[in-house]
Model the fold of this input.
Amino acid sequence: MSIQEAEQFRPYLVAHQIPDSTKKLVEAWLYKIISNKRSPIEFSENQYAFTYNQAINFMNENIYRTLSLKDIADHCHVGTTTIKTLFKLYAGHGVITHFLNMKINDSKR
Done:
């Protein structure tokens, strides 16, 4: 993919009101594909992984409580849109679905 081809995506991200956190992930991913180098914003990917793991740990610690999406996002100091995006990216499904699956697996033990 050329730089010009990648630049085609920028107006789409702006026009469709894509959240900034998602824009950064997409831009980092496109940069990586184009240049096969480390992205200058690749540190963000590590922060996103950290935030995802922080959410998982929080849910594990509160497995017997009822948590809302806002509770989890607030604990991780991010917005609800960001936490939803991270779970779609790393887990392939939503935050609450993941939490419910964790509760089900815990009850099977």
Remarks:
- The first helix runs from residue 3 to 7.
- The chain has a mean pLDDT of 78.
- Residues 68 and 96 are 8 Å apart (CA to CA).
